[in-house]
Design a protein that fits this description.
Elements (H helix, E strand, L loop, with lengths): L1 H9 L6 H8 L6 E8 L7 E9 L2 H29 L1
Antiparallel strand pairs: 1-2
Length: about 90
Amino acid sequence: MAANICGGLLNKSWRSYNEAMAMLRGKEVEGLYLIGKARHWGGLDVDVLYLGRSEDIYKRLRQHLQKSREKIQDINKYLQSIDKSK
């Protein structure tokens, strides 16, 4: 089922994160969204990283971004602790 949904979403218009956020700002748009990495921009050759559903896609995408930033900070802290222990 997820493969069918991803396939359907891949045939829709793609937007960069910034474009999508600008379009969604101030609106409570419900629906499915796909986070992926295009191997060839403009093509359908995409690595699907995450498929989600939200009642407020703008809010949910901001949550994904915040979690990503927190994970990067955690990784950096860990790497710094390794450097200090040497």
